[in-house]
Design brief:
By secondary structure, the chain is mainly beta. It has two domains: 308 residues, YVTN repeat-like/Quinoprotein amine dehydrogenase (Methylamine Dehydrogenase, Chain H, 7 Propeller), CATH 2.130.10; 83 residues, Immunoglobulin-like (Sandwich), CATH 2.60.40. 0% of the residues lie in helices and 52% in strands. It is built from no helices and 36 strands. It has a five-stranded mixed sheet, with no helix packed on it. It has a four-stranded antiparallel sheet with strand order 1-28-27-26, with no helix packed on it. It has a four-stranded antiparallel sheet with strand order 2-3-4-5, with no helix packed on it. The chain starts with 15 loop residues before the first strand and ends with a strand.
Amino acid sequence: MALFSFLVLIVIATWHFEPIPEATEHIVLDVNAVGKASVAYYKDSVIYYAQRIAVGDSFQWLTEIVDSGATGIGAGKGNPVELAIDKKPSPHLIYFKHGLYYTTKDSLGSWQSIALDTWDYYKSGLDTDTLDYPHVVCGGELRHYYWDGSSWNNEYIGGMGYVSLIIDRNNNLHIGIGPPLIDDKQRYFHYGFRDSTGWHVEYISGFDVRWPVGIAVDITCCPHLAFYDFDSSYHSVKQNGLWMHENITRLGYFGKEIVIENIIPHVLGNQTTDTYVRHMWKPDSEWLFEDIYSSGYPKDFAIDNHGYLHCIIVDSLEIIYGTTRPQVVYEQTNSILKFSQLVTISRLPLSISLFGLESVGEIKIFDITGRLVKGLALSGNTLDLTWNGLDQYNKKVRTGIYFLMFDQKEKLDIKRFTIIN
């Protein structure tokens, strides 16, 4: 029998948490495609940027100063900084400094800043498009600033509020607009969309929104919103021109941090009965949930290209970074279990190949809850097999997240993927 050694032991749906030294509640998070986390935060009139890097056999946060003179009315209020990591990956930041500033690093690694707007109070949105060009929507008067490769441009949208921004794969912009003031007369709620014809903003009626609105888009470019409505939390999605709203209060409240894994929404909130931070997701027709941290509240949420989750939690004594990404410095290179091609999303049947086997084994398929879906037996010299999408009861599986696992003595390998029927 051939023996293999592995540096990775993956546990399904396991969260890892660690403090971020010196960080404050004025913090935001983003990750690059492979899951490397970065944060930006405001502390005592200074904007900091920190990356989580491998040092020896562990991880550390490498922090640097972006701007040491970030003062102004909004510098220490609400969300004074936003962060986006592009595909290169390079960081892009906006922050308050007697106005709204944008900054990124030049070819020499120095931060280069430019003033975009005179507003410096309301939360603004930041994201990058498929060309890695930055887009900013200022919450003060809802104005869109964007880089076209040679110069900055801007266009007026209209209105005012706390803005969340995301850009889909077709370079269309989506914004969620929360109320600008905690005032009975101004708790309105808008969604905005920009395509090749310009901006389209609509009022979403029937809600009494009290906080900024979280926004995300799925792989079909449909927008998803998460927001808090006085005493309830909602998830909304727009499909075929119509909004569908669902109350997820029974799972938590203050749920406004949202990301999408392909077509599956994930929301972070606080449990209604105590201070637990709750992760809620909907792989099918029902919402699932787990309490992931015993205190604090979620501040930011991100997902990488492998489907691993990353979050920031503000605890009473420290700022916590959490992730479902396996905590290994050296990635596994002699993997046994492989797809015949690189697969993160698949339509059935799914082809699977194995390498280096000299004995009988079995591949097990689990769903996201950890339930065994199917066992695929290997015999003789079989190195390739196909899963037709039927479970152990010969029923077709539903759209969702699944795990392939091969486990035999010294051999252990797990792959995560999504099936779309």
